[in-house]
């Protein structure tokens, strides 16, 4: 199973009055990790978008465990939890500056046509990405 790690320097504007990262920012960090994961596989979202294909989030599941604070460097670990040729589920683990697990979660995605939001088979439309997903997942 391929795991991609992405470092995030916590910026002041990402925190609340307590100096703790505001909960919605973890979803942004998931996206940063997911984008990096695709790049590590050799793909770019903007290349898919040139073909009028987008990959919206269908579902997000987040568990908050320990805060990440302003001034820390967080690390986002990203991997594929499941993939069936149409839907891909990414899993995430975010660790704080003390290397404690701060947040875990998953997001589900499908490729869809930009104009109609009708699902598109990754297996058929992007066979190289399909193979890369299978290899990264360990299938």
Automatic annotation (TrEMBL):
Superkingdom classification of source: Bacteria
Any single Pfam family the record assigns to this protein: 4HBT_2
Keywords, sorted A to Z: Hydrolase
Coiled-coil residue spans: none
Protein name: Thioesterase family protein
InterPro entries cross-referenced by the UniProt entry: 4-hydroxybenzoyl-CoA_TE, HB-CoA_thioesterase_AS, HotDog_dom_sf, YbgC/YbaW
Family named by the database record: Belongs to the 4-hydroxybenzoyl-CoA thioesterase family.
Species whose genome carries this gene: Salinibacillus aidingensis
């Amino acid at each position: 199973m391929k795991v991609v790690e992405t470092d995030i320097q916590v910026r002041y504007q990402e925190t609340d009055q307590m100096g703790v990262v505001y909960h919605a920012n973890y979803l942004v960090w998931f996206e940063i990790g997911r984008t990096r994961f695709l790049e590590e596989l050799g793909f770019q979202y903007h290349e898919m978008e040139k073909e009028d294909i987008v990959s919206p989030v269908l579902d997000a599941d987040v568990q908050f465990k320990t805060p990440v604070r302003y001034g820390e460097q967080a690390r986002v670990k990203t991997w594929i939890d499941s993939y069936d040729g149409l839907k891909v589920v990414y899993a995430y683990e975010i660790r704080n500056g003390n290397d404690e697990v701060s947040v875990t979660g998953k997001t589900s995605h499908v490729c869809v046509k930009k104009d109609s939001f009708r699902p598109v088979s990754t297996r058929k439309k992007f066979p190289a990405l399909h193979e890369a997903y299978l290899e990264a997942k360990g299938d």
